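Ticket opened by: R.M.
Priority: normal
Category: complex prediction / small molecule

The reporter submitted a protein together with fe (ii) ion and asked that the result be attached to this ticket for the collaborator who will pick it up next week. Submitted input follows.
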Amino acid sequence: MSQSDLTPARPIEPSGQDDLEARWRDVVGRRSFLKGAGLASAAVVPGAAWFASEARAAAREITRGDVAIVRLLAAIELIETDLWQQYNELGGVNGGNPAYIAALSNLDSDMPQYIADNTDDEHSHAAFLNAYLRSQGAPPVNLDEFRTLPSSHATGAKQQGRLTNLQTLTVDTSWYVRYRSTENPDLGASFPQAVNITHEPAIPLNDTDTPPGLPAPIPPQTAQETRMQAIANTAGFHFAYIEQGGSSLYSIMALKATSLEVLRIIVSIGGVETNHFSLWHDKAGNAVAQPLAGVTDPVTGVTFPDLNAKRGQLNQTNLILPEPCDFLHKDLPPCSIVRPTLDDNGGALATIKSFTADRLFEGQSPKFFRTIHQLATDADAAQRSLR
Ligand SMILES: [Fe+2]
Ligand SMILES: [Fe+2]
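Result attached by the on-call engineer:
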């Protein structure tokens, strides 16, 4: 190699802020000039500027359908907040049940922090959506009259009325298979349960069942330790179940929004629901992988098998990112996506039905079901208007 090969074509310049700004001016200078010229011509044609501001105003104006979408999402967020609050009181970073925290930490040592953060996010979603409704002169959603369900009696749980029931869940775990499959429910595919979780608590019920001072060895040694680990494992799968539902619901509601501002709200919150799902997808997998796999609740018989022992893509626990699947048409190439994104499979009514099957509302009043059914029906009926 000759000396000239080693000589840079241009001297290396200092990389300070002044230098960066000088280069930036070189690159954007002409574009800035053109932009200035555009502004000048708009001033000559006042109609163009008027039209632009009209278009902007129209993009912000919210329709009846937009209000229905935001009200349904506010209700869902109040429901999410209520359930996450229960998890957080017992298992969050400031949670009050050491045995539950220890069992959750077998899924990941950061579980308490993640639970606290997810709870904060749901609080912020609910508060923002209701504040936004008020700012638009639309009625906010208040579900306080339905906070009637009992709290857990385990150490750490506050004694107050709840919207949701985490004490006897039947968790749909088919999302685990769906996100590993190359098939799509929107094109007719259906998926089996990864784990059969029926009538299982996702939070400790009381201190007799699971004393708060229990250790959480792997594998659990006593019946009470095994019971608590099964409860924590159920929570792990339930976290992911709730958040995958949110991922689909927000994607579906985005397709119905007319106002660009409402669309911005939906995609901005929806992205965080998907972020939550991805996190919990990873943690749930640890309940069905070694060294934790193989726990059977001695009270209910619910078992968390070693899914890696079954082999194959539909079981592999570390396949936590969505596998590419059919999308729109089977003759198009597979695509890694949120799914489902059709009303029938993940819209507002489908979500409420799924939460009901989850036994999340076990013990709720007929008026509660009528109220959320109406909110969901109105949101599903919203249609994007082309104006
Ligand atoms: Fe949320
Ligand atoms: Fe969420």
